[in-house]
Design goal:
This protein folds into 2 domains: about 1-160, no CATH class; about 195-470, Metallo-dependent phosphatases (Purple Acid Phosphatase, chain A, domain 2), CATH 3.60.21. The chain is about 40% helix and about 25% strand. The chain has helices at about 1-25, 80-85, 90-125, 130-155, 170-205, 235-245, 265-270, 290-295, 335-350, 365-370, 405-410, 465-470, and strands at about 30, 35-45, 45-50, 55-60, 65-75, 165, 220-225, 250-255, 280, 300-305, 305-310, 315-320, 360, 375-380, 385-390, 395-400, 420-430, 430-440, 450-455. The strands form 3 sheets. The chain has a 7-stranded mixed beta sheet with strand order 10-9-8-7-17-18-19, with helices on one face. A 6-stranded mixed beta sheet has the order 1-2-5-3-4-6, with helices on both faces. A 6-stranded mixed beta sheet has the order 11-12-13-14-16-15, covered by helices on one side. Helix 1 packs across helix 3 (about 90-125), helix 1 (about 1-25) crosses helix 4 (about 130-155) and helix 3 (about 90-125) packs antiparallel against helix 4 (about 130-155). The termini are far apart.
Length: about 475
């Protein structure tokens, strides 16, 4: 009995010392590509817990031991994430899983070393003898080795199919279903859009349906007006394909490339660079300085925050100004007064410029409608509905939503079509005037399309009083 007591006491001391030191020193930071995590180990029967501050936690009963494995998302490094997205997607997931598993293995080895040290230190402090201290250390090591080994043997990753939620992430089941539905819709729709683009090209080549009359005239300019892509890469791809099919000269984008204006979203629309045409972009209320900066880095993109851009090869000048909400990260619709102030600012800029615009662009109609007393073409978006009309002396055009209202539009019960407008312009003196607009509507569900031509008011000889009120007056 004395011998067993002489073994049992150091063993119990070693186990308690190991538990104490592990609970204090178990936390360890790891990095898995762009994601930084903190791993820790505690006591709770059989749970693995994932913490996503400040959204809450997700946990599941994954194993049959009294240990709790905790993983906390510490940071998302946007620069590393940007580099990762830019790489080829093949093998990234497998690489992430392999890296994560390797670092967890190192973490568990570290836990065993801490358990050994905890037992050794507690045994030496209490007994002051190397033999008892070694016995206590081995006891701590063996117990944690058994617990970790049993956890690995009984671990069931499928337990996360029925997890427990706490905090804001209680909405996670709904969000995950939304994301899953959206991804399925994207995959199916991508195939449909490619078929539509091919059919349109064949139709144009064989029937010369679009632009047949105008092709015989000298000095025609074709501009593809797109808007409100809202994070949908398919919208960008579709715009590029349609610009090629229609033989457009320039693409004008009247904003809302993203939903929340985060740099990550900016990566989703970087395939704008795949189009070789000049792409003129004016920020909308869902864009942000971070997104604008992403787009400025693309060679073919010109961002109009407040000013004019001229194309010497076409002798064309375009004026535009960003939505007042694009200056920060708040997803808001500015007041009527803010829009009028923005329009007044742009009018001053135009008045001070030697080159006068034939086209004025902004995201919201409340800005461009301040220019209807000029004989110019006014382009805007925001409403997600195509609208073409003459107002005052101007032609007012809303391209609708080229992204089908974005990823959200893929999963809504209401069908939101992809829309854009091909603008046909003719020289009239020193100006370009819009003479026709082709509305392109592509339905998501049935892969069908509608092509509608709207003839605009033909230019009349401008009177002296009109010239005085025009941008060049």
């Amino acid at each position: 009995m004395p011998e067993s007591s002489g073994i049992l006491r150091p063993a119990l001391v070693g186990i308690l010392g190991a538990l104490l030191l592990v609970s204090v020193l178990s936390s360890q930071d790891i990095s898995v590509r762009a994601l930084d995590f903190t791993l820790s180990l505690g006591l709770d029967w059989g749970y693995t817990e994932l913490a996503i501050p400040p959204l809450g936690t997700i946990r599941a009963k994954t194993h049959q031991t009294p240990l709790k494995f905790s993983i906390s998302l510490k940071d998302i490094n946007l620069e590393r994430l940007k580099n990762m997205i830019a790489q080829e997607p093949e093998g990234i997931y497998a690489e992430l899983v392999a890296s994560f598993r390797y670092q967890i293995s190192l973490f568990l080895v570290r836990i065993l070393i801490i358990a050994l040290l905890g037992g050794l230190v507690s045994g030496y402090i209490l007994f002051r003898r190397p033999k008892q201290a070694l016995l206590a250390g081995l006891a701590g090591l063996v117990v944690f080795a058994l617990l970790i080994g049993a956890s690995i043997l009984t671990y069931n990753e499928k337990a996360f199919r029925e997890p427990e939620y706490k905090g804001i992430v209680e909405a996670a089941p709904w969000l995950l279903k939304v994301a899953d539905d959206a991804l399925v819709a994207v995959e199916k729709l991508d195939v449909k859009l490619k078929v539509i683009a091919t059919n349109l090209m064949l139709m144009f080549e064989s029937l010369s349906l679009v632009g047949a009359e105008e092709a015989t005239y000298e000095g025609e300019l074709k501009i593809l007006h797109v808007s409100d892509i809202h994070n949908n890469p398919l919208g960008v791809s579709l715009a590029s394909q349609m610009a090629s099919a229609f033989k457009a000269d320039i693409i004008i984008d009247t904003g809302d490339a993203t939903d929340y204006g985060t740099p990550i979203e900016g990566e989703l629309v970087r395939n704008i660079s795949e189009s070789k045409l000049p792409w003129i972009f004016v920020p909308g209320n869902h864009d942000s300085p971070a997104v604008v900066q992403e787009l400025k880095e693309l060679e073919n993109v010109t961002v109009l925050e407040a000013g004019l851009v001229s194309f010497e090869q076409f002798d064309l000048t375009i004026a535009g100004i960003a939505d007042p909400a694009a200056g920060d990260t708040d997803m808001r619709v500015p007041t009527r007064e803010e829009y009028k102030d923005a329009a007044a600012q742009l009018q001053i800029i135009i008045g001070q410029s030697e080159r006068k615009p034939s086209i004025v662009i902004a995201h919201h109609i409340s800005i461009v409608e301040e220019f209807t007393h000029w004989p110019v073409t006014l382009l805007h978006g925001h409403s997600h509905r195509v609208n073409i009309r003459n107002l005052g002396q101007a032609v007012l055009i809303d391209a609708g939503t080229t992204g089908g209202a974005g990823i959200r539009g893929l999963i809504t019960t209401e069908q939101i079509p992809y829309t854009m407008v091909l603008l046909h312009m003719k020289r009239h003196g020193e100006d370009w005037l819009a003479t026709a607009a082709d509305i392109i509507t592509i339905n998501q569900r049935n892969a069908g399309f509608i092509l509608e031509r709207k003839l605009l008011a033909q230019p009349m000889e401008l009177q002296a009083e009109d010239l005085e009120e025009s941008p060049g007056g």
